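Encode chain A's predicted structure.
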Amino acid sequence: MTLLGRLLKNRRSGDADMAWHLPTLQGAEALTLSSRDFGDGAPMPARSAAKNVRGENVSPHLTWTAPPAGTAHLLLVMEDIDVPTPKPAVHCVALLDPACTELEPGALDARQPAAGVRVLRAGIGRGYHGPGPIKGHGPHRYVFQLFALAAPVDDSVGTTQVDRARPRALLSAITAPVLGRARLTGTYER
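Encoded structure for chain A:
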């Protein structure tokens, strides 16, 4: 696997196609997102990595400032922007109750999400999927993006229920104004 990582070293999706840059998710950077598990731009803890790379697949602690008045839903998206594919890999999508301002470790578990958390389909499956980059590919950036939406996310995206919608289709279909947003980047390397 190290050889494959080295061969693909210069192939990275980049940040141009991540949720942050979608026209439907533009808004003021009126929130602050942080974690007691890692700082912005710093390595994520090993326990947050995927199980296939000897992690525990436990979502990290996240906390944020209170969302602006009128927030109906918080949307949380985690993407790997260094994966060697045309677009970033979506590792987690969740809708959060606007009264929530913190997620403890493991809160994004697909089988037992925390109160106020509705985990949706990610690119890999439902719930949180921790870092698992190709060995030797170099550091990967995992961007946690939080959006305060002025209206609830509809229960359907076209003819598909929101719980089963593909992440890119869901993110592109959001029409609610974004009242505030923030992001936090963690890194992981094998």
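The two ends are 10 Å apart (CA to CA).
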